[in-house]
Amino acid sequence: MNEYKGTDIVKEALQVYFSKYHFADGGYNDKFFRIKIGPVYIPVPNTKGRIAAVKIHDIHHMLTEYKATLKGEAEIAAWEIASGCGKYPEAWFLNFGSFSYGLIFVPRSLLRAFLRGKAMDTNLYYKVTYDDALLNKTIGELRAYVGIDKPLRNSVKDYLLFILWSLFSLAYTFLFCYCIYLVITWGIHKIR
Known about the structure:
Oligomer: single chain
Distance between the termini: 57 Å
Largest sheet: 2 strands, antiparallel
């Protein structure tokens, strides 16, 4: 059952989404957001680019019905990577981390979401401006625009792309974690 109906207005559906997942107005005005790595939360500056990307990302959650949970974030990451994050480097950056843990914890769901994303006509990262016109559209209009409800027709190429993106994502995550390790080690060394 769809949580967001096709007749729902995006700006109203966003308020339901924020309320359900305890996001204070999407966190768009916060100076920092947190990335959880294991039991540790790392504060990261909430840049203009990240805010622009997450505004579209939040609407994608509603269009696809992927929840804002660990599993849902991995699924939306796979969907967005497959359909493309366009000119939003912050979206690529954040999605690779979620994609990587999805490979470990929910690989089947990740593959399904990736294949679904490859079948899309487009997504909202392309040729769409986050403005009142977008926020006053219905969820149904945007689902039709991206092609959410069209039948999936994936090829062998799509499966191979999933493997390539998986390898890239794992390498990227390893390098990111290794850089954090180096910074922490350097900091500890400086303190001594």
